[in-house]
Amino acid sequence: MGFLARRDVLLTIVLFLLALPAQHFEWFALLEDQANSFRHQMRIAYGDQQALSVSKDVVLVNVDEPFFRAYGSYPLRRTDIGAIISNIKELGAKVVAVDMLMDFPSSYNEDPALAEALTNAGNTVLVAQAQFDHGKFVKLNYPTTVLDQASASGYTNISSNSALLTVLSRLKIHPDIATERYGWPFAVQAVAMHLGQPPRLADNVLSFGELKVPLDHGDHLYIDFPPLPNGTRFLSQSAGISALEFLDISQLDESEREELSYWVRDKIVVLGDTSEVSHDWFDTPVGMVYGVEIIADTISTILKGAPLRAASPQAAAAVTLALMVVMIALAILFTRPILRALGAVVVLGGFAALTSLFYVKAGLVLPLSYALTAGILSYVLIEYRAYLLERNQKKHIAKTFGQYIPGELVEEMNRTGQEVSVGGESREMTVLFSDVRGFTTISEGLSPQELTTLMNAFLSPMTRVIQANRGTIDKYMGDAIMAFWGAPLRDENHATHAIRAALDMANTMEELSESFIARGWKPLKIGIGLNTGVMSVGNMGSDFRLAYTVMGDAVNLGSRLESLTKQYGIFIQISEFTLAAVPGLIAREIDLVKVKGKDQPVRTFEPLGFDGDVDAATLDTLARYHHALAQYRAARFTEAKAIFQSLAEAEPNRMLYQIYLDRIDHYLAEPPPADWDGSYTAKEK
């Protein structure tokens, strides 16, 4: 459970836990409304078209623009409303639902005539309005007293879920209003009269006898808005009929009456105003829709048993928590940013696609925006933590290694994100030791200020050479330098880079000697030893002081080789292990030597350059030398001596030839034992 210590994981848990009450109590309904609008458009495009169609038991009768042009005045007189209702009922309508608010008496005393028409028609529904104060029900505003006595009514006001944008997508069934007289929504009242069953509300289920209509946990009915045919803006343009057809049917013959009766027989007829002057339209998931059309769609949804059904709060919470678990797993398992990004796209995109698929194909409404928002925010938090870690790691790398290795390597480590270790770790590397010959004698004739200037003049160019060849400075030990290759940044060519650094250091010393002489200083000579092998590298030391360094037998051998350079009179000495790791290197074998503290002899070499860098005369001399060395190792001392003498005459200043001549004279006087392996045991470190 160590992952719980991560702040991004904890904040992810907090975000998703906040999403649970947010989606349950609909704190941010605007986002969810927009998500539902998108999903409903997908449902219209890819869902079951037959299931989406308007129920055949409901029909619209529109008081529209053509009606008023033919009618010649506005608004429609209540006596004519009564005539239309009477004619619709005469043609066989089962329920006439009049979506026209008539809560004030008629100025022309027309209410008695309309009331008589309503009474004679029977099974009519008029519009009432529910009055709320800060979301709390106050009372029902019924039609005028005369009309209220002649007809049933139902409230039509549907409130938006969002306080910022009015989007009507659900019908709220208020249990506290249902106890009032005609305390049901307009559409519910119309369906009840059509089925001849009183509505009942219990346990988030609206029932009409055997018809059960599931609601969400807040007693909301999701309205399953139907698709509109191409080229139409409103349902009334394709699914309705003009009220003008029903204004006067006295002159119709039998066949015309039968044709008109086909539209309304045994149906719920919703009579309403769809003229532009009424401005009775609202924003819905399918666009702007007239109020009377929303009523018709609601009636259709109820009659079809609510094809859109909200998931239970338990299921919604389970899905949200499942997404939380996946997001946490994403943060823990994926360390690379690109993989996390792809994972987030797959997870969050898959969540949105899956919930949309359930909505489109199964009519199951799962909350989308709350969990998706929590997921997006949690991904941002996860990435922000990763950014902080990366930034801190870069600072740590720069602080830890900036003084040891060249700046371009620090940048490369930050750029590539290569893993680096500051703890103990074993890996194959190459170590270099260099030391100034006779430094004590040189320093005796200098003041402290001059000595400091000299050391800076020597160490600075040597450091630049090492770092130019990708080396890491381990430490300065007075006039000595210790460096290594292969850490903290892994380097497959660490031995090659170390050899090139050593050769460049020797060349740089020749240039420095001239400048030192010009400044009145004695020229410096250095010895360099290199070895390649498995070493321990990391921050080592005590609780009080740590240093990034290397340790091990391979490191000690490099130090021994540097010390032995002065005995052989050479600048650079490397081990056979370094030579084997550097292809194309031309080197003179120096000795098969048992360094102090080692029982096994090590072949050592003096690097001369790479293929193409060494002239033919040097290569010829090198071949003769190696032949003499082979004779020496085979105990053919007389033959070896002849060749070494010839080489010494040609190069009298090369100490190495005289070393072997001295050894040969010793062995000629005192032959080595029969099991002699040709090695030499060093007496000094």
TrEMBL record:
User: What are the residue boundaries of the Guanylate cyclase domain, all occurrences included?
Assistant: 430-562
User: InterPro entries attached here?
Assistant: A/G_cyclase, Adenylyl/Guanylyl_Cyclase_3/4, CHASE2, Nucleotide_cyclase
List keywords of the entry alphabetically: Membrane, Transmembrane, Transmembrane helix
Pfam families attached here?
CHASE2, Guanylate_cyc
Keyword DNA damage in record? no
Coiled-coil segments, which residues? none
Q: Known SUPFAM superfamilies for this protein? A: Nucleotide cyclase
Q: Which residues cross the membrane?
A: 315-334, 341-362, 368-387
Q: Which domain of life is it from?
A: Bacteria
PANTHER family given in the database record? ADENYLATE CYCLASE, TERMINAL-DIFFERENTIATION SPECIFIC, ADENYLATE CYCLASE, TERMINAL-DIFFERENTIATION SPECIFIC-RELATED
Q: What is this protein called?
A: Adenylate/guanylate cyclase domain-containing protein
Q: Which organism is it from?
A: Magnetospirillum sulfuroxidans
